[in-house]
Amino acid sequence: MSAQKQVQSRRTAASSRNESINKKRQQKSAPANKSQQSAKPAPKKEAAQQAQKNYVETEETNNLIKRAVRCLTSGYPIHLTGRSGAGKTALALEIAAQKGRPLTVLTGNHEMTNEDLLGGITGVTSTKLVDNYIRQVYKKEVNIKENWTPGRLVEAAEKGHTLIYDEFSRSRPETNNLFLSILEERVIPLYGTKQKKSYVPVHPEFNIIFTSNPIEYAGVFEKQDALMDRLITLEVAFTQKTTEMIIQHKAEVKQKDAKFVWGVLKNLQEEVKEAQGLLSIRSGLMIATIAKQADVAMEKGNEEFTQICQDVLSGEVVRFEGTDTFQKASSLVKRAVENAK
Question: What CDD domains does the record tag this protein with (predicted)?
Answer without folding.
Answer: AAA
